[in-house]
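> example.struct
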């Protein structure tokens, strides 16, 4: 199976989740967020194809990485391909983070007009989801692991169990939002 990527896998990232992480950069995004930090990943015909087996072999060479992060582009535009990569990462004991411009509510709405086959299965393989589009007017450089205040850091297993978004207790900077409310 082939996946369309924007870049080769990044190794040892310290900004795409906690600890050292490998980042899978998917190609293709419908959101086209104003101010996106990676607009070269939007074109669905851009990037290059890579065999998932080759990515799996690369994951096996990771030594100190705590997990992998799917970014892009939009990983949920290629959910079945990303699911296969996630399965290999889980076999290797890696945790999985994913950035998406979709909201958790959109991803679990199997009757929604945007729903794609494989969304739920891919979502079930993810430990932490940063959801929602980047909104330039809500950009906040003080936020950890997200770019704008509307984006949420979600505990996916807990969210799926509750069937509603559950903020991740370890990473979501609630104090920043409380400070903004107090103003």
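> example.seq
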């Amino acid at each position: 199976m082939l996946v369309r990527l924007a870049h080769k896998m990044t190794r040892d990232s310290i900004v795409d989740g906690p600890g050292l992480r490998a980042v899978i950069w998917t190609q293709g995004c419908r959101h086209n967020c104003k101010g996106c930090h990676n607009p070269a990943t939007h074109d669905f015909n851009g990037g290059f194809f890579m065999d998932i087996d080759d990515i799996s072999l690369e994951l096996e060479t990771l030594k100190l990485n705590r997990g992998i992060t799917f970014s892009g582009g939009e990983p949920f535009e290629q959910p079945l391909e990303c699911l296969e990569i996630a399965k290999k990462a889980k076999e290797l004991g890696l945790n999985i983070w994913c950035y998406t411009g979709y909201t958790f509510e959109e991803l679990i709405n199997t009757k929604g007009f945007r729903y794609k086959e494989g969304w739920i299965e891919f979502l079930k393989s993810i430990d932490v989801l940063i959801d929602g589009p980047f909104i330039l007017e809500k950009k906040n450089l003080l936020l950890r692991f997200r770019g704008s205040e509307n984006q949420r850091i979600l505990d996916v297993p807990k969210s799926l169990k509750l069937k509603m978004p559950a903020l991740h207790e370890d990473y979501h900077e609630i104090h920043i939002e409380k400070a903004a409310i107090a103003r």
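> remarks
The longest strand covers residues 21-25.
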